[in-house]
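Box 4.2: Ligand-aware structure prediction
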Amino acid sequence: MATAIASVKRLSESPNLSSIPSSYIHEFDPTDIAAADPDLSIPTVDLSLLASDDPDQKSNAVQELDRACQEWGFFMVINHGVPEPLIKAMIDAADEFFNLPEEEKPEFEPENVLTPIRYGTSFNTAKEDVFCWRDFVKIFVHPEFHCPEKPESLRDILPEYSVRIRDVVKKLLSGISVALGLKHGEMDKALGLESCLQIFVANLYPPCPNPDMALGLTPHSDHGLLTLLVQNDVGGLQIQHKGKWIDVNPHPNSILVNTCDQLEVFSNGRYKSVLHRAVVNNKKTRISIAVANGPSMEAEVSPAITMTTPGYAAMKYKNYLSAQQGNRLNGKSMLQELVRIRDC
Ligand code: OGA
Ligand code: NI
């Protein structure tokens, strides 16, 4: 049994906290960041073009999306159709959740990673020796909708937010299915998208007295197909591109998207899941909302592109998800260990 540890919110609010406990010290080089370079600007995908009735416009947009997924695994979506006030209200509701008295939040549950509403700290304290400077709540919102009792603001808007995000994901995946040369409906069927798993994750990164020694989240890739992320006005997300860490400074009102492990498998390695991490600062609280969008939990995911030799073994998504969430975060080790069968 791991010892129970407190939330970093509570830790950061403790009087006289002048330095972090040693259990939060990570070995990493905070100066290992690519210098600002116009060639390293993150691609933008205009969703209105992807859904255009004009075939040329649409086919150009599909090409751009394909390139963004292949070369970066990361992009900003604009003209996404999710109202700005809804995004703002979502971040405020997450803030309210973390500000609830501890007894009004669900219990910490590090062990049961498939619990539909799970509040916790770090990533998986049952498995970690060094902790991340992060509290979270993870809520399964599809195919079955769940929501904590409190705060009321969360109950009010979470249904709409998850539907709107699913709409964006649907459009992106339909573009990806064209880019992969799949027949209409083939992807939906193979991945069971009608009952796709959607997990809403709110992340809290309070101010940290030693931002050069702590990490909000250690380098990792995400388990699903596509993760869609928004944040308050505080940065901290970094992605790895061509071996270098890059600060992500999103356009206002854009949604950040990263390609995940199940998409890497399904595309037979055409779209590699992107490594990313969260750094922290000593001034302001950062809140991010990351919605993980995966296949159906029951889907047996394998490479869809049959013209080439498969680089990945088939595996039920539910089993992959349990393994990824039930271990410590360690780069792309789960993908490597569980499904990768050759370099591609
Ligand atoms: C995640 C994640 C990054 C961030 O929740 O998987 O990578 O910036 N979040 O909060
Ligand atoms: Ni992530």
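In the box above, the bound molecule is N-oxalylglycine. The chain has a mean pLDDT of 94.
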